[in-house]
Prior knowledge:
Elements: E1 14-16, E2 24-29, H1 30-39, E3 47-51, E4 57-63, E5 69-79, E6 87-91, H2 98-109, E7 113-118, H3 129-143, E8 150-151, E9 155-156, H4 157-162, E10 169-173, E11 179-180, H5 181-186, E12 192-196, H6 204-212, E13 216-220, H7 228-242
Parallel strand pairs: 1-3, 6-7, 6-12, 7-8, 7-9, 10-12, 10-13, 11-13
Antiparallel strand pairs: 2-5, 3-4, 4-5
Helix pairs in contact: 2-3, 2-7
Amino acid sequence: xxxxxxxxxxxxxxxxxxxxxxxxxxxxxxxxxxxxxxxxxxxxxxxxxxxxxxxxxxxxxxxxxxxxxxxxxxxxxxxxxxxxxxxxxxxxxxxxxxxxxxxxxxxxxxxxxxxxxxxxxxxxxxxxxxxxxxxxxxxxxxxxxxxxxxxxxxxxxxxxxxxxxxxxxxxxxxxxxxxxxxxxxxxxxxxxxxxxxxxxxxxxxxxxxxxxxxxxxxxxxxxxxxxxxxxxxxxxxxxxxxxxxxxxxxxx
Length: 252
């Protein structure tokens, strides 16, 4: 007896929408409609997956497909919004393209928040947050995520340290060395953040200010010199592996 094909198919197009989803009809227009109609060739009756970072992922069935828009009938919720580990990534902005990559990986790896941090050696002092969010949305669409990292306005390092939450550990990648990252992260449970500096690293005064924060823990990321974006991804992966939801039991 032949197997019943999976429904909806794995090849079903998947899109993020800003508004909370609920059963009923939703109109899709603009670039998303162009993608569905002109690129994916969606026809009446075809499935589309939608997610909203609020209620989860829904199955939509195409109705009234036009040249520039279409209507999707939301028939069922496929998944609730996924639980997100309580990890922030605080990263100094780096060159365009590389900071876009950091935003993508923050989403793929499961960060709850991406917070750009301005340091003395930060070369890029203006960020296009709309572009960064678009990169995170694209990553979520492609990777099947139902949640997006919160993207906050850039903040200067002194202000970040001044307002740091008392209950959140701040692991900062210290190029001068520190406690082995995996050991430090495994031994300190609870809300956490990773702080990664710019291409030139933190200066001595900044490093002293970070270390003076009671919640700060300097960590080393191995024997090799890492670029800023590599350090961010490596540190996030380490935390997810020893304290996040890569463990067998997932999030506590």
